[in-house]
Amino acid sequence: xxxxxxxxxxxxxxTAAATLVLTTPALAWGGRNVSIxxxxxxxxxxxxxxxxxxxxxxxxxxxxxxVPGGTPLHLHAPGSGxxxxxxxxxxxxxxxxxxxxxxxxxxxxxxVSASGGxxxxxxxxxxxxxxxxxxxxxxSTLDLAAVNGPMSxxxxxxxxxxxxxxxxxxxRGVAGTVHAxxxxxxxxxxxxxxxxxxxxxxxxxxxxLSGSGWEGKGLDASTxxxxxxVLVAEGYGSSVRxxxxxxxxxxxxxxxxxxxxxxxxxEAEDRFVELGSGDPVxxxSTxxxxxxxxxxxxxKDSD
Length: 303
Prior knowledge:
Elements: H1 3-22, E1 26-29, E2 32-37, E3 50-53, E4 56-57, E5 59-67, E6 73-77, E7 83-88, E8 93-101, H2 104-108, E9 111-115, E10 118-122, E11 128-137, E12 140-147, E13 151-154, E14 157-165, E15 169-172, E16 175-183, E17 187-190, E18 195-201, E19 205-209, E20 218-224, E21 228-232, E22 240-244, E23 250-252, E24 261-263, E25 271-275, E26 282-287, E27 291-295, H3 298-301
Parallel strand pairs: 6-10, 6-12, 7-11, 7-13, 12-14, 13-15, 14-16, 15-17, 16-18, 17-19, 18-20, 19-21, 20-26, 21-27, 22-26, 23-27
Antiparallel strand pairs: 1-2, 2-3, 3-4, 5-8, 8-11, 9-10, 22-25, 24-25
């Protein structure tokens, strides 16, 4: 097989993975077609969430819960439900459960409760789902999971373990210790700090590196069968290593790429560029996916 053919096969695999994850907002779930619109991830309450089931708007209801601060929070969204966590200066976890269902009877059957830090939802069958909005105190411990639904964390400071399948994951302004795994969904990381580890399978990975550099132990993020995009701010001071498997497209067009150390050897175990000096604090990699390193514009940073 020629080098050109190998490149084409790798790019086709990555494109297929990206297409798979980007079409997940409309989910086939229990024979139903469920769509969740959270206003581009900006929704902070039930009023801004639009859920359709088989093309019909769902009926909704809010339930509020509280979990004492200092108690580890365990929250696994059932069915097609999702999770949005916002960091807070409050003392306790404040949780809003947005229940949505095809019919009023299905909505009434959903029960949400919190006990000993574990938040549970029952009755969310093929005709119903629950989306959780959480305000998390600084220094919290969280165990989160979502299947067939989106998850996002914003300005969360603490110890977080999370997993997502078949839905997008956004980490924005997180700090502390974060270990994340995602499958079949796009992942975005930006404006974060601390000890952050992210593993992605069959999904695109985008990392936006802003400010003067990474604060904390470091960022280690990788994807398999997905494209990797790295956006680097002007003047970013931390050392960054970006690597990809052989025989895939690799573009480094950020201003920092001019002085980067690099290897384009297709026979090596990986192709890489290293930006900055010293041991890398940020490590980003992909297997079977194209790589693009670009400048991060102030306009996009403000989005």
